[in-house]
Specification:
By secondary structure, the protein is of the alpha+beta class. A 4-stranded mixed sheet has the order 2-1-3-4. It folds into 2 domains: 30 residues; 99 residues, 3-Layer(aba) Sandwich (Glutaredoxin). The radius of gyration is 21 Å and the shape is elongated. The longest helix has 27 residues.
């Protein structure tokens, strides 16, 4: 009886270990639209932006998001320092663009995505305001 309990405990611990490894393997694979993956080319503005070999800053927003308005102001302020050396794409959720938001797994607004000149996503912020100074720091790190 005691031996059966010990074997049951060992089996349970082994099952938890296997499940943990499987979950870790699944979660450690970069998801499309997140850092460590290539830019998703599912909208004409995104395709156009990546053609010139410059880094790209993407803002995903909604019309009902007050933080998105403030975020865009901060982005435009920061972008003035780059004189066209960084692409800026602003996509607002609307009919016909739902799939783009789904492809990028945009669940919160604003969502900012910073893409380097090689189309690799380097940084992403979901649902949080990012100051103009922080935007400049991130852009400097990916140029």
């Amino acid at each position: 009886m005691k031996r059966a309990r010990v074997l049951a405990v060992i089996a349970a611990v082994a099952a938890v270990a296997v499940a943990s490894v499987a979950l870790w393997s699944f979660l450690s694979v970069p998801q499309e639209g997140f850092p460590g993956t290539q830019m998703i080319m599912d909208h004409p503005a995104l395709t156009d932006a990546c053609q010139n070999g410059k880094p790209t800053l993407i803002l995903f927003s909604t019309i009902t998001c007050p933080t998105c308005v403030v975020q865009e102001e901060a982005l435009l302020e920061a972008m003035q320092d780059y004189n066209g050396s960084v692409n800026y794409v602003h996509l607002t959720y609307a009919t016909g663009i739902e799939q783009v938001f789904a492809d990028w797994t945009v669940l919160k607004a604003p969502t900012l995505v910073f893409v380097d000149k090689d189309r690799m996503i380097r940084y992403r912020s979901d649902g949080l305001y990012v100051s103009a100074d922080a935007v400049r720091q991130i852009l400097e790190s990916i140029r």
